[in-house]
Every structure is written in C-alpha cells, then in structure tokens.
Write a structure and sequence with these properties.
Blueprint: H1 51-55, H2 65-76, H3 79-96, H4 100-103, H5 111-123, H6 133-139, H7 152-157, H8 169-180, H9 188-203, H10 217-228, H11 240-252, H12 260-283, H13 288-314, H14 325-340, H15 345-349, E1 352-354, H16 357-360, H17 362-365, H18 369-375, H19 391-398, H20 401-405, E2 409-411, H21 415-445
Antiparallel strand pairs: 1-2
Amino acid sequence: MVYSLTYRRPTYVPRADTNRSTSVSDEKDLSDGSVHSGHSSIAGIPEALSFDRVITGGTCPPCTTRDFMNYLIYIEHSAENLQFFLWYRDYAERFAILPSREKALAPEWTISQAEAEVLAAQTHGVGQKKLNPETAAIFKGTDFAPGPKVTVSEHAGNPFNTPPMTPTTEAASFFSSEQGDGKSTLTGSNASHTTKAAGAFENADLKWQPFTVQPFREEVSRIIATYIADGAPRQLNLSSRERTALLHALENTTHPSAFRNIVSTVEWSLRYQAHPNFIRWTICNGNRPRVIFARGLGVGGIVGGLIAAVLITLSGAGRGWRVLSAIGFVIGIATLVAAWKGMCVVLHGMHHRHLRPWELFAEADDSSSNYELKKSSFDSLGSSNSYEDEPWIAKYEKRNIIRKVFDREVWIQEPALRQIQDTIFIQAIGASIIISAIVVGIFAALPRGKYY
C-alpha cells in the first residue's frame, strides 16, 4: 500500500519562518497552551506520523520520541524545546491530581492577568508598574515601594523603624552545621537552583519573593534555573518581554497556566518546524556518503545509457536495438531521483536504513558514563545538551569513506515510513520510465549512421 503518486515530502522549514509574535489574545481559543486545535495537518506527514503520535509513543523506530530527541540534539541543536515541553505535560498532569487544598495555594494565572503583564512590560517597562495611591501609601518606606528604597540613614532618623537586618556568620554556620549532621533539606544543588532563580527574578526587577508554600515551588525554581534564566544550560529562545511576563506569573503562582504563553511558543516551534524537518530527515534511509554514492551511480547509469544509445545509432543495427539503452536510462534516472530525495534504492529494496553515527557505537558505550549522558537527555532538569565530548564523534571521524558508504543497516520498523518510501520509489520508477521513453524515442527517430 502506498500513498498518492502526487505525494511530496514535507518541505524544509527554516527556523526563521517559525518566529511569530506571541500574543496572549491569540491563544484564547487554545486550551492549556496547546496549539494543535483547529489547525490542519502538515502536508507530507500522514496521521500515523503526526506530532501527537510521536510524542505519545504511538510510533516505531526510527520515528519514536527518542529518535526525535536525538534529531534535535545532534542535527537541529534545539532539544531544549522538546525537553521543556515533555516536562510541562508531566507537570500539568501531576498538578491536576493534587488535593484541592494544595491547588488553592497556587491559583490559576488567567489570560487577562497575562495580558496586563505584557501591556505593562511594553508601556511602563519592567518592574515600573504604577500603583494606586492606597497601595503606594501602604508600601511607603518599605522595599516594595516605587522609587528609591529607604536608606540606612533614614532608618536611623526614625526611632520607631526596625533597624535593617545585617547578615552574620551565625546563619551560615547554622546551615553548615545542619548540613554536616545531614538534617538540612537544603542541599547544595537546591541552593544553586534557588540562587539562580532568585537572580532571574532580580534581573527582571521583580521585588516580590515567590510564595514558598505553593506546591512544586522548588521544582519551578529548578525549571527557571535550567530553561528561563539568562545563561541557563538549556535556555529557551525567549524574548525579553516573554521572559519577564513568565517570571512575573511564576512570582505569583506555580499553576501550570503560568507557562501558557511560553508553552504555546515552544509547541508551535516543535509542531510546525522541528517535527516536519524530523520526518523529512527520517525519510532518508542512507547516510550522506551513501546518498552521494547513489547519486554517482545514477549519473553513471544515465551516462551508460546515453553512450549505448549513441553507439547503436551510429552503427548499422536496426532501430529496435536502440531500445536496449533504456535499461541504463531507467536504472540511472530512478536511482538519481530517489537519491535526490535522500533514498538509496538498494537499501529500500530490503526496507533497511543506515544506523545513525551515534547509534553505531551505542553498544560499546552502554557501560560508559557517556551512555548515562545520553539517557539524561530525557531528564528535564539535566545539564546542557552539549555532545562534543561524546566518544562516537572521534570514532566516526576515523572511519574511512568506504566503511561509511557500507555502514551497518537495520530494518525500518515504522509501517507509515515504509509506505512513504515505497511511494517515493514508485514515483522514481515512474519518472524514469517516462523520461527514458522520451529519450529513447528521440534516438529511435534518428537515421542509422552505418559507420560500422
């Protein structure tokens, strides 16, 4: 079974084409930040290989979530989007099953509140929102008051003011002693993430301290330190306005709705840029050296057919013998057309594909620390996605070109992908037959040369 003969692969989507201005009002028709509702499927991607099927584990190799993650790490270099998206889906599910008394501590961040924050960031600047007179009177003389803060000298002039607390070594010694006894819940890692999250709030000029009693506050701090803060190991590609609006929402609540706009942007990039490019890349069953080799064979077949047609035409043989040149034309053109779309017809005949470079040495690296790093790509709170130090890179570079052309193969398990490749193969055969018939017909119309 194949798809329509007019089938075309998903077109390559450059990252620049996915940039869109994220407006909260544009997302009112979306639920929980999802952008798939009401949008048609992408041309060239069957339903069996849709974004939702890949993410939910409804596909087979080489179209699984793991394969998608590897593509984003090694090819597109934007795995942080998928890592954040998978974390958010899990986070929203875990938040939904919390007891009602815990949910009440983190109220939903409504669209109107998000719109107000975006507008405030545009008009008044970050952290410069105007307060009403009553609120300003309450905050007067405190760190939360607009304008310059109260200085130490002003405190000294008023005997009723509480002197500012100065840091001492007692607090530090207290925490260090507690940590030494193993009784403290604030580990070094937690303190590091908390410090980075606090720095992100401070850089955004937000004065309120987040409510620590809210559910998952520590986890949210880790997410801020990993994905949101400037210089984070997996920093998302967010505008300053988006980052500020998100931090203000997280300053008030840990409800999943606080991530609504950011998740919408991330999912849009995954669904309409990364996923189509992943399917396009997966259709290719051979590595680059093999595809170049196949193109060379295709050109060679065409040249061979052309030489045969010329020699038979110049000879005294009958016109019917010139049809033999069609063999070279059909094989050459079909091979070239398939290779132009990233497919090797020899591999396709067995429904095989080449192993990716990082898959070739997976067995040798299973017991090494590098394998643990690969597994950490699904760790939402892991380190950066750098892979330059992975052992397979040096090993693959040492392989000669012949070994790369004839690398190890594996059977393609995903039926929908095999159907796409079958369709492309039939298209290549059809194109080769039509073009060969035209070329052979031209040579058949020429008179015999009778030179030999």
